[in-house]
Amino acid sequence: MGKKHRAALAQIEPGRLYTLADAVPLIKRMAYARFDETVEVTMVLGVDPRKADQMVRGTVVLPNGLGKTKRVVVIAAGEKQSEAQSAGADEVGGEDFVERIKGGWLDFDVLIATPDMMKSVGTLGKILGPRGLMPNPKTGTVTFEVGKAVQEVKAGKVEFRVDKTGVVHVPVGRVSFPDEKLIENIRTLIEAVLRAKPSASKGRYVRAAYCGSTMGPAVPLAPSEYHS
């Protein structure tokens, strides 16, 4: 652990659980990197992700965006290509893009595809799956409403998904954001995760939650911030 990280960690009071109003200014004070660090939320859930009926997954549009514009590629045909271009997609194509990806092209953050193109796009599973880039109807990236999908991603749509250890880890903005905008984004994300609670989940759904910057230590949040 470096000197700067130890100095940042020393600012967190042992045993204290922070409200967002106190946690966000502290996170910003503790950020020591030379770049504009990403602020992230981590939620420890009381679910067993190995069971299909306890999977937690969804998307939410953060009201204040993420502070960076994602590069969006759309695979579609006909008039849907024009719709995607008008909505602001960075690149739009059809079967030719499937071949480009097979050839190693992965210069994008989000891939959106129309359902009629999924037979071809489905062959890219081994390439896109491990990178979290495979289009999925549950996250709104397999849709005929390509214009709306592109606009939502550009506006700050993020995906959350519980990992195999029962943890959700999601970016919610940048250290340079005003406090109130970060707090609004964090609350929006937490509310979305709470709404996604599986009916099969028993006992306490959110066991703990933390917020921190890319390089800084995580600040434990008070239960009042995440208990519905």
List keywords for this structure.
single chain; 228 residues; Ribulose 1,5 Bisphosphate Carboxylase/Oxygenase; Rossmann fold; 2 domains; four-stranded antiparallel β-sheet; 9 strands; Ribosomal_uL1-like; rRNA binding; ribonucleoprotein; rRNA-binding
CATH superfamily of the largest domain: Ribosomal protein L1/L10, rRNA-binding domain
Q: Largest sheet, order of strands side by side?
A: 7-1-8-9
Q: Order of SSEs, N→C?
A: HHEEEHEHEHHHEEHEE
Rough outline: globular
CATH topology of the largest domain: Ribulose 1,5 Bisphosphate Carboxylase/Oxygenase
Output the structural class.
alpha/beta
Report the major sheet: 4 strands, antiparallel
Strand content: 15-25%
Number of helices: 8
- Any idea of the CATH class of the largest domain? Alpha Beta
Count of individual domains? 2
Distance between the termini: 36 Å
Named CATH architecture of the largest domain: 2-Layer Sandwich
Low-confidence stretches: none
What's the β-strand tally? Answer: 9
Mean pLDDT: 92
Radius of gyration, in angstroms, nearest whole number: 19 Å
Could you describe the 3D structure shown?
α2 (20-30) crosses α8 (179-195) and α3 (79-87) packs parallel to α7. The chain starts with a helix and ends in an 8-residue tail after the last strand. It has 2 domains: 15-66 and 157-225, 2-Layer Sandwich (Ribulose 1,5 Bisphosphate Carboxylase/Oxygenase), CATH 3.30.190.20; 72-154, Rossmann fold (3-Layer(aba) Sandwich), CATH 3.40.50. The chain is α/β, with parallel strands linked by helices. The strands form 3 sheets. Strands 7-1-8-9 form a 4-stranded antiparallel β-sheet. Strands 4-3-5 form a 3-stranded parallel β-sheet, sandwiched between helices. Helix content is 31%, strand content 21%. It is globular and about 60 Å long. A hairpin with a 5-residue loop joins β8 and β9 (219-220). One of its GO terms (biological process) is regulation of translation. Belongs to the universal ribosomal protein uL1 family. Keywords: Repressor, Ribonucleoprotein, Ribosomal protein, RNA-binding, rRNA-binding, Translation regulation, tRNA-binding. One of its GO terms (molecular function) is structural constituent of ribosome.
